[in-house]
Amino acid sequence: xxxxxxxxxxxxxxxxxxxxxxxxxxxxxxxxxxxxxxxxxxxxxxxxxxxxxxxxxxxxxxxxxxxxxxxxxxxxxxxxxxxxxxxxxxxxxxxxxxxxxxxxxxxxxxxxxxxxxxxxxxxxxxxxxxxxxxxxxxxxxxxxxxxxxxxxxxxxxxxxxxxxxxxxxxxxxxxxxxxxxxxxxxxxxxxxxxxxxxxxxxxxxxxxxxxxxxxxxxxxxxxxxxxxxxxxxxxxxxxxxxxxxxxxxxxxxxxxxxxxxxxxxxxxxxxxxxxxxxxxxxxxxxxxxxxxxxxxxxxxxxxxxxxxxxxxxxxxxxxxxxxxxxxxxxxxxxxxxxxxxxxxxxxxxxxxxxxxxxxxxxxxxxxxxxxxxxxxxxxxxxxxxxxxxxxxxxxxxxxxxxxxxxxxxxxxxxxxxxxxxxxxxxxxxxxxxxxxxxxxxxxxxxxxxxxxxxxxxxxxxxxxxxxxxxxxxxxxxxxxxxxxxxxxxxxxxxxxxxxxxxxxxxxxxxxxxxxxxxxxxxxxxxxxxxxxxxxxxxxxxxxxxxxxxxxxx
Length: 553
Description:
Layout: E1 5-14, H1 18-30, E2 35-41, E3 48-58, E4 69-74, H2 77-83, E5 87-96, E6 106-108, H3 110-114, H4 120-136, H5 140-150, H6 155-173, E7 187-190, H7 191-201, E8 206-209, H8 216-225, E9 232-235, H9 239-251, E10 256-260, H10 262-278, E11 282-288, H11 305-310, E12 319-321, H12 326-343, E13 347-352, H13 353-356, E14 358-362, H14 423-444, E15 450-453, E16 459-461, H15 466-477, E17 482-486, E18 488-490, H16 494-497, E19 506-509, H17 515-524, E20 530-533, H18 542-552
Parallel strand pairs: 1-4, 4-5, 5-6, 8-9, 8-10, 10-11, 11-13, 12-13, 16-17, 16-19, 19-20
Antiparallel strand pairs: 1-3, 2-3, 2-14, 7-14, 12-18, 15-17
Helix pairs in contact: 1-4, 4-5, 4-6, 5-6, 7-8, 7-12, 9-10, 15-18
């Protein structure tokens, strides 16, 4: 049975409004209550280069973009040559006839029709969504409503331009792709928006960051929307400042999160260790991109897994978890903020560009988001001991102003927080922090740490944003399988995963060295000779991934 998936691709140069066209296309398909997935692909350039947006929709469940498209709009010649081979059977390609000529496809004079108006280079994006509306069978009245909703600036000229493109496109495209109305739940959210909202629902007070793709949209969203919820977003001068100020903010009692990517987190690792020894509850959001060093700044990869688990010098407990969908990133962000305060330890939300900068339907419920108060000091006889040795390893937490003396120390210390070189207190603090690690493990045993999808067939291990791709590949290929997605990666939920010993699983990840497969083997002894790895900066495409899975089966 053929799946009801419709894909629209628009491509052009940076500065031609390509991403905006993708967003508007998503909103138009959302008007039909269809499930959406939008992926934005762009180079690290302000102008020029090649940008494109892929918007896939379905009346049924959808967890990934599809590159085989029914409608492709090329605003420049490069887009034509790059995407013409992605046209599905029976699909239509529309190109800007002012910048190129072609034997196949439908040419429209998008640039010349835009020249009578200001900023014609930006206005061609309106042509792409007009073409989509025509192909879906909408009339000009609907297009005007969309433009009024989405292109409010210079509205009169946008409507006039769209009207002319409508006249040119309608004779050959009108109603070419009538789509069934769907039953989508919730609204389309970017991963960065879901992470931001999850942090807000978890009681976030302060978010600090130095901009770094692909974590920057979190900073932008919280700077714009955070004040409505009492959240302050700060853009500081460097990642070093961000991480150190976050530890200081936690000392003062503020629920604090920071965001960055691999290179920025490398600069934060000394402060990450500082949070470890001070037992500071800070949430670090690590949105991965390809490395090493600058790598490929605007693309995706999962090669920061070992880095996150092993970050910082010395032994101290931390929690690392990775969401598999946009909706899961909402709840997991709140959970990790909760766990940071519950166990007074740094936590890491490990995600990737493909999740933070992709958009899909989600139904987050703030009432279900975790929000811990922390183990607050209640008062007792004698001096306050910030690092009191307890059975759980979690010590009483007190913030200024207070009549008590509060000492947080980066030097090894005794229970009060006084620095020490003595072997007894040193060992006692190590033992205390290790008991805290054991308490974290015991807590994780009581919550969902692994998601399992499907039943029967081969076992497929995956994590993070690759989960979305695997689930869509199984739908696309009609494959029965059991997908195992560890959400928590440190401490690793051995008690959940070890049941798959002997299954010779297929391991799907975006790492050339197989970091995820190695982690599974190290933690559980489960080995596999069936691996699917992609490490070219691009996410898995469901049809291609489905064939790779079938080949291994």
